[in-house]
Amino acid sequence: MKYGDKKYGNIKTYKRFIACAGIFIGGLLLCSCPAGIDKHREPHFSHKKSVPPLAENREILPRPESGTPPAKPPFTGTEEERKKIIFERMLNAVLRFETDADVSEFAIGCGRENEEHKALYNEFLRRYPFVFHIVEDGGIAYNYNPHNENELTKYRFDYKVYPHSLERYFARLEAGIEAFYGHLREPMTDAEIAYTLHNALAEKTEYNDGMHSADTLGALIDGKAICQGYSLAYRRLLRGIGIESDFVDGPSPNDPQGHMWNKVQIDGNWYNSDLTWDDNAEASEKARSYSFGTYFLTSDTMFYGVLGHLRPGAQSYTQACTDTKYDSDAGIFRRGNEKTPPLYHEGFWYWLSHTDKTIYKSRFDGSEKTALYTLNNKLNNYAYKRLELGKSGLYFINTDPAQPKKDYIYSIGYSGGNVQKHAEILFDQVLANTSLVGEDDKLTVKRGKNALRGELMLSKMKDAYYHGNEDYFTPQAENRKKFTETIKKAEKLVNQADVSDNEAEDLYNILRDMRKNYSYK
């Protein structure tokens, strides 16, 4: 991992290089590969404006010969007012694809002793997780005061998507994020949401190098990513729904460019998570959980001590993870290679164990664990090891003891009773992944507060990229006013403690319809 400042005139470029490295854990070799952040990639699009390429390849501009423009008077308002103006100026500049945002009057420190510029930039990314077209790998480019190089005058922006291709990328990213949030259920806790998105990303993402494998677009659009892409995509999905997360990078003995993973904040406590190393590449083929769950929501003691994970680099700020609430091996998110993907229904999780062919039910942390039913199926074909949710209970494939050469669809109530034998299922139907649940018992997904949280992210993203030439913070067009007013109403509702599912679902449907039909006029 490398860090460095380059000074040319009054411009600095802070650069971070990350690559993904693997280590041999538990007999499984996780291969290392270049992260691509320090690898030159020619833009596959162009724009008439002179928008800078990626930070590591940026042309450094010389100091203007005409001299320095007159300084703006120092800002004298409160700290909150100061931040508000800084972030508004930055966001408007980014959404207009401008090369920089002038913040010279705010005396933002950028020296070794005062790195306020980094803290503010990171807060900017946290506040607006729907902004996807700028580079967000931890590197920061900026202009400094020619009379004081420890004071920033402009933030400079690097773009990974340009206006020429923005609409195409937006449509694909919108569909991708909506699909990931579509896995959420009511009334999942934040920890359960974090696991659901963790598992969904592992399911949909292949560890592979590609055009956007080192940023969020690789995982969320192309389904291909390396460690940096996994980490940034996971952070975006979590932040988008209101769960704080950040990435951590550190050196690796197998690769001098290092590795990247996540920290996740649940109920005020920070936990470690490494989605790259937890991705179970053989999950679909062998009917296993998509995530091994080894590193998910672990304390520092477990993550670095017991599991021996790589440690953060010297310049990688990281929050201490002292809480051990989820360190136990009993959680449904652990031992993913021994069970089918856990399924959520009304506060409980259900899975089929590969070790004893038993269907289990428990809470997220493994408490209230109950064995519901043990299969007598002798077949070793993984295609038969399936579990599906219906209105009345769980559906699975089992052999009838009285007819050992035939397999049938069975169901069992969510509490373990009312075992029923349904239609015979043929081998070809099993291989074709034919649904086990009949149309009359299909489970209807209830969309409540969690669904509304996801829709808020999508609607904010739509408004940000489709608001014409207006100031983002001052809606003018009537249809945009209605859209943003509904967004604010949804924001208020998701922050209320007592909200009925019906009220949340009604607003979710209204906001979703507005987003789907919205166009700026």
Low-pLDDT stretches: 1-9, 14-66
Oligomer status: single chain
Give the rounded overall mean pLDDT: 85
How far from one another are the termini? 47 Å
Rg, Cα atoms, Å: 25 Å
The helix count comes to 13
Describe the secondary structure blueprint for this structure.
Blueprint lengths: L1 E7 L2 E7 L6 E2 L2 E2 L49 H17 L4 E3 L5 E2 L6 H12 L12 E6 L2 E9 L6 H19 L8 H15 L1 E2 L8 H7 L1 E2 L1 H14 L4 E8 L2 E12 L2 E5 L1 H4 L4 H4 L13 H7 L36 E3 L2 E5 L5 E5 L7 E5 L13 E2 L3 E8 L2 E11 L6 E5 L2 H5 L17 H17 L12 H17 L6 H17 L4
Parallel strand pairs: 9-10
Antiparallel strand pairs: 1-2, 2-7, 3-4, 5-8, 6-8, 7-8, 11-12, 12-13, 14-15, 15-16, 16-17, 18-19, 19-20, 20-21
Helix pairs in contact: 3-11, 4-6, 5-6, 11-12, 11-13, 12-13
